[in-house]
Amino acid sequence: MGRSFASSGRRSLLRGAAASFGAGILPGALRPALGASPLKPVAEEDALVAFGHTGPITDGGWTTAHDLGVQAVRKAFPKLKTVFVESIPYSADATRIFRQFVAEGAQLVISTSNYGDFIKDVADRAPDVGFLECDGHTVTGNLGWYYITHWYASYIIGIAAGLMTKTNQLGYVGTFPIPSVYASANATLLGAQSVNPACTMRAIAINAWFDPQAATQAASALVDSGCDFLCGITDEPAYLRVAEARGIKAAMWNLGMRQFGPKAYVSSVTLDFSRFYVEQVRARLNGSWRGAPHFLTLSDGVDRDAWGETVPPDIAARADAMRTRILAGYNPFRGPIRDNTGAIRVPEGTVLNDDAIYQWDWGVQGMTGLG
């Protein structure tokens, strides 16, 4: 697993694990550990919770969202101690940092990105310490993972995009060709195509999560090619600034960013880890914590931001009608779904569950630039 991190970085996933994609069957590594006993309780005043971040907490995006969750933990449990390290590399240095957390006495270690074997090796050697890995894939007695089902919010925003575009060309500022990016881009395009079948999407991968210059260049190229609605999955608002300057629309990721382009801003996939982090720390303190997989769901960890000031009310209402359906249990990711070669990947009658979408590694029909 660790081999994928040097090239892709944060939120990278195992490729090729989606042979059971249509059925949505979890690979064994994703299933919860069976028969594991909860870790022993810890008094709040004796507790240390450590957070390992993939970026700086001031990035205004992914890591800032996680840091807001850390702040919620501090508020809920004022007697415990928290420590964190920013910008942990995807290398042996990550193993060293996680080992240091254990050496300092941490009872719970939370990595806000996927560190694969770098964190698993440490967890295997510290069975009395709980480990949580964001966008992870392995579950043992003391190692679990968590992730947000961001694809539903992206689908909802995609409906607005499909109704607002005039050129029927959406632009996507991507990072790496990995499943979390495919899920984001595909969901947005499928949402747009559900109301405007003529929509296509051009994607550019900038090979970074935080590179404002590269994101600006990609966004400008997409607009020059005819895209009049930008979206993406970067950790800062560069492409929103481009949209504002060029008089088009944009949807963002991680947090609400309307202040960087109020006329262009449509919405954002917003993340909130506060409740989840507080629940996990509480479980670790009271002795009920064990390694397990967790999806944070729509309206309970991830959602769309309030609509931008230039989004017509009727368009917002149509998009929100789908949000209401999803909250009631409807899943819009249902076949037939073709890939960008025209081949049917999801047959009619098949619905992609979260486990399957979590492993998406191909672009849907109408997508170019992500493979």
From TrEMBL:
Keyword Isomerase: no
Domain of life where this protein originates: Bacteria
Entry GO CC: plasma membrane
Any single Pfam family the record assigns to this protein: Bmp
Keywords: Signal
Limits of the ABC transporter substrate-binding protein PnrA-like domain: 49-302
Record flagged with keyword Signal: yes
InterPro entries: ABC-Purine-Binding (IPR052910), PnrA-like (IPR003760), TAT_signal (IPR006311)
Protein name: BMP family ABC transporter substrate-binding protein
